[in-house]
Amino acid sequence: MHLKFRLLSFILVLLLLIPGIAGADVTSEHKASIKELTATTSETHLIVFGTLENSFNSEMIETLHSGIALRFSFFVELYKTAENWPDELIVARNFQHIMTFDTLKESYRVTLEEDNNKVLSFRSLFEAEKEINDINGAKVVELKQLLPDHQYKLRMRAELYQKTLPLSLHNILPFLSWWDIETDWHTISFNF
Questions:
Q1: CA distance 118 to 112
Q2: Are 120 and 108 in contact (CB under 8 A)?
């Protein structure tokens, strides 16, 4: 019991010494969003395009340069809609864009999970950021699963960064986390 009291006291002192941990809301200063969301068809699939905006902050870049990969997770949901009827979920899928920094080669690598884990290399952070932010023809569903002359709704959001307390302290104090950066759902409707 005495050890638990010491651990709790240490955590409280830590919280007092590091201002802003318990209530830091970076998302209000830095609101990421999905723009230019578009759904269209290839020969076989419904595909989606879009762009993330305001997706990076200075701490994410520091983290990347320290050797930790950045993982952007994208969540896509497709619903069939009808007037006076609940929306019917057709498919829900997710995929990741992962960016790493090679300190020896001083280059950035971006892996696009939705494109068969395609890996692209860049010399500049600007080019790598552009690639990790682009959703470029991600497959959502095969066209044969869609009914002609029906209305559909496509929703997408992204989770860009999660940072929790070290040493699994978030398990002891579950109400504390440093911050999460995620977008709101962005929705478009269309007729097929």
A1: 5
A2: no
